[in-house]
Amino acid sequence: MTPMTPTTLLIVDAANVVGSVPDGWWRDRKGAAERLRDALVPYAQAGVEGHPGPLEVVLVVEGAARGVESVPGVRVDPAPGSGDDRMVELVAQTEGPCVVITADRELRRRVGELGAAVHGPRTVYGGRGRAG
Fold first, then answer.
1. What is the model's pTM?
2. Which residue pairs, CB below 8 angstroms and at least 24 apart, start in 61-70?
3. Reduced to 3 states, what is the DSSP secondary structure of residue 120?
4. Does the N terminus or the C terminus of the chain have fewer Cβ atoms within 10 A?
5. How large is the C-alpha radius of gyration of the chain?
C-alpha cells in the first residue's frame, strides 16, 4: 500500500480578501462573504498557484458574515472571536501542507512561523484569479 499524500488545506481570510476589492462589500458583508465562498468552489478541485488540487478549502468568517453556510467544496468556519486567531489555530492543528490567503501582515507572519505558505487575495479573488 502506498502512503496517501495529505490534502493541502487552503484557509481563506474572508474579511481581508473581501476587503481587497472595493465593490461595495461594506453594504452587505454577509452577501460579500457568500460571493467569495462561491468564487472559491472551483479551487477545491483545481488548486491554486503552486498548490495543485484537490484542496480542502476553509473560509474563515467573523462578525456580520458569521451566518454564511458551507457549500460543497468550501467549508465555512465562523470564528468565535478573532478571525486571525482562528486561522492561526487551524494552521497549528494541521498536520499536512497549509496555505493561507490574506494580505494581513501580522497574520502572514503568525501563520508563516507555523510553516504555512501565504498568498495574497488576488490568488483567488479580485484579480485574474477571480472566479465569477
1. 0.91
2. 61/14, 61/15, 61/33, 62/14, 62/15, 62/86, 63/15, 63/29, 64/29, 64/30, 65/14, 65/15, 65/18, 65/29, 65/30, 65/32, 65/33, 67/30, 68/14, 68/30, 68/33, 68/34, 68/37
3. coil
4. N
5. 14
Rounded distance, CA 42 to CA 54, Å? Answer: 10
* Angle (deg, nearest 10), helices 83-93 and 105-113: 20
| Neighbour order of strands in the sheet with 74-78 | 74-78, 55-61, 8-13, 98-101, 117-119
* Residue 49 CB neighbours (<10 A): 10
Answer with the residue of higher pLDDT: 117 or 49.
117
Give residue-wise pLDDT tens across range 58-84: 999 999 898 999 999 999 999 999 999
> Which of 100, 126, 101, 108 is closest to 25 using CA atoms?
126
Residue located via cell numbers 500500500: 1
Grid cell for residue 74:
468550501
56 strand-pairing partners: 9
Kind and range of the H or E run holding 12: strand 8-13
